[in-house]
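Re: [ENG-882] Designed sequences occasionally contain unexpected residues at chain ends

Forwarding the minimal case from QA. Structure tokens:
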């Protein structure tokens, strides 16, 4: 059984490396609005809950379904700047996707703090008064200076077999396409499935301390990530476990030109 699961995992991995016409770092133009409530993005579709407000200094956003991508876009980072040079800076703001935006008027709805961070000094009230602004955006790598890739054990987890995890602090610029779990040091890998957003689960979690492996990809390349650490045998619901390493890869793009520079 383990050999079959490994075959399927690597077969699936090979399928993910087919060329794509997507170009995340190309600059796109759209409109952006903001949530007036500071808690509007908490408990969003990605499942981060109250933790969302602590990400990136609270600079978070809900993104259109095309960017949310059935949850695969959760945790993705974007640099967004408004197109009014009298009102806004040229660097804009970097945000993390934590929710889905179902509005047809804008691609992004930002937290209030992220929206005003696009403005020049003393212009915060002016940009908020507009409510919706023309912007351009591109995807950028996520950077977490004080966090490794981590998982949170969801409260719906039930020992011994049902395990649900939420992936946190995913660095770099890639998408998590697949996650496997096995007993630490073992090779009897079990597939996990995306429950919703950033939450993955399995009804066949092995016993003992657990290790993970992940397929991350984007553009036309991909790689397998083997975190240095896992979770203990006595894992606890609600606990966050540091996986001991970070994803720093930036996916290669299949189109040209792309803007890989940092706006300032």
């Amino acid at each position: 059984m383990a050999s079959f699961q490994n075959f399927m995992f690597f077969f699936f991995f090979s399928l993910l490396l087919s060329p794509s016409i997507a170009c995340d770092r190309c600059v796109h133009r759209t409109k952006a609005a903001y949530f007036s409530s500071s808690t509007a993005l908490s408990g969003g579709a990605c499942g981060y809950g109250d933790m969302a407000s602590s990400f990136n200094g609270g600079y978070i956003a809900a993104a259109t379904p095309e960017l949310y991508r059935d949850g695969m876009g959760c945790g993705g980072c974007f640099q967004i700047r408004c197109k009014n040079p009298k009102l806004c800076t040229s660097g804009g703001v970097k945000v993390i996707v934590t929710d889905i935006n179902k509005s047809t008027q804008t691609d992004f709805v930002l937290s209030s703090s992220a929206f005003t961070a696009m403005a020049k000094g003393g212009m915060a009230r002016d940009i908020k008064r507009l409510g919706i602004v023309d912007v351009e955006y591109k995807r950028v790598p996520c950077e977490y200076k004080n966090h490794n890739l981590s998982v949170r054990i969801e409260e719906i987890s039930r020992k011994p077999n049902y395990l649900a995890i939420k992936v946190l602090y995913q660095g770099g610029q890639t998408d998590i396409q697949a996650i496997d779990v096995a007993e630490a040091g073992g090779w009897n890998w079990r597939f996990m499935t995306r429950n919703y957003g950033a939450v993955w689960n399995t009804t066949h979690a092995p016993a003992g301390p657990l290790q993970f492996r992940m397929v991350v990809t984007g553009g036309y390349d991909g790689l397998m990530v083997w975190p240095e650490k896992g979770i203990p045998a006595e894992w606890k619901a609600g606990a966050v476990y540091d996986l001991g390493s970070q994803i720093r890869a930036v996916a290669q793009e299949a189109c040209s030109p792309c803007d890989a520079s940092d706006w300032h």
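QA comment: On inspection the terminal residues look reasonable. Residues 2-15 form the longest helix (14 residues). Proposing we downgrade this to a documentation issue.
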